[in-house]
Amino acid sequence: MMGLDAMNISLTEVDVDMDQAEHRSPEIVAMNPLQTLPILKDKELILYDSHAITMYIASLYCEDTKLLPSNPASRALIDQLFHYDGGILYPHYRSCAYPILYENCRFVMPQQTKEVEYAYQELETLLKGRSWFSGTYMSLADIAIVATVSTLNVLVPVNKERYPVLFSWMFRMSQKPFYTTGNLKGLNEFTKRIDTGNVKDLQELKKSPRSSVTRRSTGGKLVDN
Ligand SMILES: N[C@@H](CCC(=O)N[C@@H](CS)C(=O)NCC(=O)O)C(=O)O
């Protein structure tokens, strides 16, 4: 959605309510056996990976050669970052979030936190000496990575002192209009899902907030009722 907004491309969107597990409905599973969003349906073509979807739409309609350069070498650099996002960052999201969302786990486990911190260090290194992951100009690769990092940030906050370059990049990305129109709503919904997870007893939940946002707003203390 951020990619679409950055490219100023509109398509017909269908809202799938993950709170109601609509992404596991037979209709969706028939399109995407992995039961994840987003899914793109374009006539007979069905795609269920955000990177493939973005690249497909951009190849057809994007006229902005900074967001998606046309020369093969620059495109390969974007592909490389897409693979880093999907192959390295995304699995961290899954191993941190799924136990909380689906297995009644209450915290991100220390080993997972360590691995996410390691990934933040890698991102910090990748960004050193450049303004954007793709180099001089912000590209679709920055957009893919900010989708994952802003989500991971809910689970393991990006520390400003430890990762100043990454933090500054995140801040600059968050100022982009497409971040507001394409990311904030989903990010807030995800934060809420992490906060409430599978917990049935809301009193219990108050004692042990899960998301970093809630933990920070309560000063990290357990709420005593
Ligand atoms: N590699 C996929 C991952 C998609 C993905 O995991 N999406 C999340 C939402 S952002 C999801 O659908 N999770 C399923 C769930 O939480 O049950 C992509 O980039 O599109």
Brief summary of the model shown:
Belongs to the GST superfamily. This protein is an all-alpha fold and 225 residues long.
Explain this structure:
The protein folds into 2 domains: 2-61, Glutaredoxin (3-Layer(aba) Sandwich), CATH 3.40.30; 65-225, Up-down Bundle (Glutathione S-transferase Yfyf (Class Pi), Chain A, domain 2). It contains 11 helices and 2 strands, in the order H-H-E-E-H-H-H-H-H-H-H-H-H. The protein has helices at 2-7, 26-31, 50-61, 72-102, 110-127, 140-155, 164-174, 177-182, 184-196, 202-207, 212-217, and strands spanning 40-42, 45-47. It has a two-stranded antiparallel sheet with strand order 1-2. Helix 5 crosses helix 7 (164-174). Glutathione is lined by residues 23, 36-38, 49-51, 86, 90, 101. Glutathione (GSH) binds at residues 23, 36-38, 49-51, 86, 90, 101.
- Tally of strands: 2
Parts with pLDDT < 50 across at least 5 consecutive residues? none
Q: Return the structural class.
A: mainly alpha
Please compute the radius of gyration using only Cα atoms: 18 Å
Report the span from N to C terminus: 40 Å
Strand content: under 5%
Jot down its keywords.
225 residues; mainly alpha; Glutaredoxin; Glutathione S-transferase Yfyf (Class Pi), Chain A, domain 2; 2 domains; 3% strand; globular; binds glutathione
